[in-house]
Amino acid sequence: MPVRATAGAVGAIDLAGQLLELFFGQKRKMKKMMMSPLRWGRLLSALLLLFWLFTLMLLTQDCAFEPEDWGAIGAGEYRWLRCFSYFFTLHLPYAGMVAFSWAWLLPRWAAGGSRRKLLGLAAGYILLGGLCTSFHPFYQELYNGGPGFAFSGISWMESSWYLLWVLLLSSPLYLSYHWFVQRGRIQELDNARLEQELALLRSQVNPHFFFNTLHSLYALSLEQSPRTPEAILKLSSLMRYALTEADAAAVALGRELEVVEQYLELQQMRRVQPAKITFEKQVADEGVRVPPMMMLGLAENAFHHGAETLREGAWIKLSVHADASRMAFRVENNTGGRAAGPHHGKGLANIERRLSLLYPGRSSLQTALEEGAFSAVLELPLAAPAE
């Protein structure tokens, strides 16, 4: 009988359609839906509505006239009464079972509710739904004597099995929805946590940088150097960069290199014997984006742990090589032939942590101390940071 096949066949079609949408859809759309629980809810609500409309259409088609019945008096009324009885004793219990499981049963199951109680409620609802089919014999007796139609009833056990299959077929859909929603929420929380940590790391760079540059300016003022006004202007430019641009996710590579050069010039002003500094640049495109204050942090580390500790003979070598996809920035400084203090201080630890958050598995910061020289090599992809 068409009505009997409705629940199983249409449920299977519905499940197959959902799986096709989930696993064979476009990857970009899947990612967007996974990140948006609201869109997932709308999708599943629409598919559930289509499911019940489709089954109702099949049920209505079963109520239509057949050619051999066109001449029978009252055939239409009788068939519609039969359709009406199926709708209230079979179709509505199926719809109620899905609504009950999605709205109450499965959310509590997924939230870790008592499995025994939930199974008992599910079994009770299935039995209650099966009880609805006990009205079929009543309708069968009521419609006996109709215009030549045989009224086929559905047994209580058979209807209960149908309800159970509806529950089993619809549950994976809700659990898939619940899993994607939870995954989206976890991803949002992770993104928020990472953004907060990045903001904290960037905020830690500025005080450290300002302290060191102000210390340099203070040394110039004590010497009453005529270059103090020029140093103040350079410091003002550096502070403007640190306050207005360093909070961005990325800046142009050319801008970061410009700030590094300004910092080197400012540090040279305060030295009685300037350090020997070389800066080699091989950059294909200065417009590519890099995280701010990283290269500047390495240059600052070279001065703070190298040239600052040497009255004379200090040297610093810097080089940057960047093509269209990757950049390598190397800073090397002498330590006067001694096993100097901690070269791997808070500044480098800050850079390493930012790299691990922005470019996990795609960047590196390698440091080495050997033969009186300390070196740091920063490598990262020239792409938009994965925030």
UniProtKB/TrEMBL annotation:
PANTHER family: SENSOR HISTIDINE KINASE YPDA. Gene3D superfamilies: Histidine kinase-like ATPase, C-terminal domain (3.30.565.10). It holds the Pfam family His_kinase. It comes from Phaeodactylibacter luteus. It comes from the Bacteria. The chain crosses the membrane at residues 84-106, 118-139, 159-177. Keywords: Membrane, Transmembrane, Transmembrane helix. This is Signal transduction histidine kinase internal region domain-containing protein. GO terms for cellular component: membrane. Residues 197-270 form the Signal transduction histidine kinase internal region domain. One of its GO terms (molecular function) is phosphorelay sensor kinase activity.
